[in-house]
Amino acid sequence: MERRGFFLRILFLALVVPAVFFLTSATLHAQADTGSIQGTIKDQSGAVIPGAKVILTNEGTNLTITLTAGGDGSYIFAPVKIGVYAVSAEAPGFAKAVQPHVTLEIQQQRVVDLTLKPGAVTKRLR
User: Over the stretch 108-117, which tens digit does the pLDDT of each residue have?
Assistant: First the structure.
């Protein structure tokens, strides 16, 4: 009878130890050195600006990532390495807006909403 108990304990350990390892490794992996930067692009009246060009620039490396805001004016950069960033947005008929010195910490979800002001329409001379 004692032998059966010994084998049950060994079987239990053989199943539990790998399960605990896999569960904790997934948790540790999720704690990477990244976060996200997201927000909404609007005009001065508060209306969203769909299709605005949004640029994320790492202020330390000058690395840039560009994307297009969705139909609801929202954008999200994820995953993003921790660091200090500038977020800018531009759209036809509007002046470019820039939010510099956005610090991103581990697992942080920073919200950076930008408001675009009407810009001067420039004409190209031939």
Answer: 999 999 999 9
User: Per residue in 39-59, pLDDT tens?
Assistant: 999 999 999 999 999 999 999
Q: Are 55 and 88 in contact (CB under 8 A)?
A: yes
Is 70 found in the same domain as 109?
A: yes
User: In angstroms, rounded to a whole number, what is the distance separating the alpha carbons of residues 2 and 21?
Assistant: 29
**Sole residue written with tokens 């609801």:** 72
Q: Which of 106, 115, 112 is nearest to 34 (CA)?
A: 106
- Shared domain for 42 and 84, answered yes or no, is yes
Q: 48 and 12 in one domain?
A: no
Q: Taking the model in full, what pTM does it have?
A: 0.71
